[in-house]
Specification:
The protein is an alpha/beta fold. It folds into three domains: about 140 residues, Rossmann fold (3-Layer(aba) Sandwich), CATH 3.40.50; about 240 residues, tm_1862 like domain (pyruvate-formate lyase- activating enzyme, Alpha-Beta Horseshoe), CATH 3.80.30.20; about 60 residues, Beta Barrel (OB fold (Dihydrolipoamide Acetyltransferase, E2P)), CATH 2.40.50. Helices cover about 35% and strands about 20% of the residues. The radius of gyration is 22 Å and the shape is globular. The N and C termini lie far apart (about 45 Å).
């Protein structure tokens, strides 16, 4: 018996997939890269963008047609909105929240029951209320965290430290797909990180919807995010090994100098900060319910420049959000130039059912969103080109990730997550740290030779 999982969306979903695989393999299933060979097909879904949901519908229609000539079981989990969940119940054999992962083997054994464990019937939702439904999504999340992951890489790993979100940004569906924020016990996190260090992993990313609010839900019964970083940093010093630890993503509202000071203090905490700004206009930020303004965000950037002068800074930006005028968009362009981000993940706003903004008229046309997206991308490209010129002729430490798709060169990442093309085809270097002298710089990447 064989299985295949399609993972959509963010690194959190990738981490979810790594915990799903060993649970399935308990039943004797073996992984296959070919969907056509699989007896069990699953999707770890993402409801953040409509394109990801469109992929889900495309795949399940294809899979259901395949049932005409072969036996096949299908399932879906991950980030799923309530409206999508109801539709998926009619399309997939098994639908379940990720917190119920340990029950998946029983669901597969009892295949044929189209009412998944952990799924609250619509009438029950009405009876207990929306707040209870959100809490239910995380009811068994600690059981999920106890599942030992099957990492998809021998040198890069993701470690979840929390699940859910309490921020309720008006454009975002995460509180409705993952529930309210719950922090994973710090001893479990540190144990998993220690295991990865012992196994010589080179890149470890700790994950959460708002990592720097870690522990706040425990009301003083858990350590802070800064303390978690310090303890990881101390493990690094004690190990005597070379590796980088990243975190994503922090919310500006909860970012403190204490976190940045921890990153500055410990060499194993990577000098790379991903801090989403989302928009450069205060009124748009207020409508997004981000609960900070650009003046507050500017203080964070200045703290990064002061405490971590060599760090790269990444961000997220949404263009075309409800009510974003041309003047507001120009302020976002100005913010991009002022903070000269090393990378920005730019998205065109799309309404997500369940999120507050879905109740409002989408005032910016698709054509205008595309125009603003292209303008901002061109701005970012120019900034990246100028930023990367400073790396010319420098020798940088690089983690080799493998051969490029064309197979002619190696590719890697600097500590600051700058993409590097390495003029070598020695694939045995994959997963290792090497010194590379930068001989070429371009848009969003550099190239160099092994020293």
């Amino acid at each position: 018996m064989k299985y295949h999982i399609l993972t959509l969306g963010c690194q959190m979903n990738m981490s979810d997939s790594e915990r799903t695989q060993p649970v399935i393999e308990q039943l004797g299933y073996q992984w296959t890269d070919q969907e056509e060979e699989a007896d069990l097909l699953g999707i770890i879904a993402c409801s953040v963008r409509q394109k990801a949901i469109d992929k889900v519908y495309s795949r399940i229609h294809k899979w259901n047609k395949s049932k005409n000539h072969r036996h096949l079981i299908t399932f879906i989990s991950g980030c799923i909105l309530p409206d999508d969940r109801k539709k998926f119940l009619r399309l997939f054999d098994i639908v379940f929240p990720m917190s119920e992962l340990q029950e998946l083997p029983d669901m597969i054994r009892q295949y044929g029951i189209n009412s998944p464990a952990g799924q609250i019937p619509p009438q029950a939702v009405q009876a207990v209320g929306e707040e209870a439904r959100k809490l239910h999504l995380n009811e068994h999340i600690n059981d999920f965290w106890q599942v030992a992951p099957q990492y998809n890489s021998s040198f890069e790993a993701f470690v979840p430290i929390q699940n859910g979100c309490d921020k309720f940004c008006t454009y975002c569906a995460v509180p409705y797909t993952r529930g309210r924020e719950i922090s994973r016990p710090s001893e479990d996190i540190l144990r998993e990180v220690k295991s990865l260090i012992d196994k010589d992993y080179k890149s470890i990313t700790i994950l959460g919807q708002n990592v720097n609010s870690y522990g706040l839900d425990k009301k003083g019964d858990e350590i802070s995010f800064a303390e978690l970083l310090r303890r990881i940093g101390e493990m690094g010093l004690q190990s005597g090994k070379e590796f980088w630890v990243y975190f994503t993503s922090p919310h500006p509202r909860d970012m403190t100098d204490e976190v940045l000071e921890a990153v500055a203090r410990y060499p194993h905490l990577a000098k790379q900060i991903h801090i989403p700004v989302q928009a450069g206009d205060d009124q748009v930020l207020k409508k997004m319910n981000r609960k900070y303004d650009i003046a507050h965000y500017r203080k964070i950037i200045h703290s990064i420049w002061r405490l971590l002068p060599d760090a790269t800074v990444f961000t997220d930006i949404i263009v075309g959000f409800n009510g974003e005028t041309e003047e507001a968009f120009e302020r976002t362009r100005a913010v991009l130039r002022e903070f000269h981000f090393d990378m920005a993940y730019i998205a065109q706003y799309s309404q997500r059912p369940g999120a507050k903004a879905a109740e409002w008229e989408d005032e910016v046309s698709v054509q205008e969103k595309k125009r603003r997206y292209h303008i901002l991308t061109e701005d970012l490209t120019r900034i990246s080109r100028e930023r990367l010129k400073r790396l010319q002729d420098k020798t940088l430490r690089v983690m080799v990730r493998g051969m490029e798709r064309k197979g002619d060169y190696l590719s890697g990442l600097t500590e600051g997550k700058i993409n590097v093309r390495i003029f070598s085809n020695d694939e045995s270097l994959t997963g290792k740290m090497i010194d590379v002298k930068i001989t070429e710089t371009g848009d969003f990447s550099v190239a160099g030779v092994i020293v």
